[in-house]
Design goal:
This protein is mainly alpha-helical and 102 residues long. The chain has one domain: Winged helix-like DNA-binding domain superfamily/Winged helix DNA-binding domain (Arc Repressor Mutant, subunit A). It is built from 5 helices and 3 strands; from the N terminus they run αβααββαα. The protein has a 3-stranded antiparallel β-sheet.
């Protein structure tokens, strides 16, 4: 499967690999990666379109809006484990952060 693994996509995959069987909220993924929502959600949609992520809507408590949740499919988990070199996304993020601060 051909998928462009930008530094941001690598960050998203890396965060999803932590407790990979658990559902994660988009907001939490954004907070843990530093990837802004305008970049994050298209990445999540591409991964879901390629059947690498499964998605669902959380049933909220009354008065709260529903939230979209994400986790790997079995194929997505294999893809991420094969496609995320150890430390590559963290290193890319450190470089991006240091460039922003300069």
């Amino acid at each position: 499967m051909k998928l462009r693994l930008s530094p941001q996509t690598l960050l998203v995959l890396e965060v999803l690999l932590v407790e990979s069987r658990e559902w994660k909220y988009g907001y939490d993924i954004s907070r843990n990666t530093g990837v802004k929502s305008g970049t994050l959600y298209p990445i999540l949609m591409r991964l879901a379109d390629r059947k690498l992520l499964e998605t669902r809507w959380e049933t909220p408590d009354p008065g709260k809006p529903p939230r979209h949740m994400y986790r790997f499919t079995p194929e997505g988990l294999r893809f991420a484990r094969a496609g995320v070199p150890d430390g590559s996304a963290r290193a890319s993020r450190r470089v991006a952060v240091s460039l922003e601060q300069a």
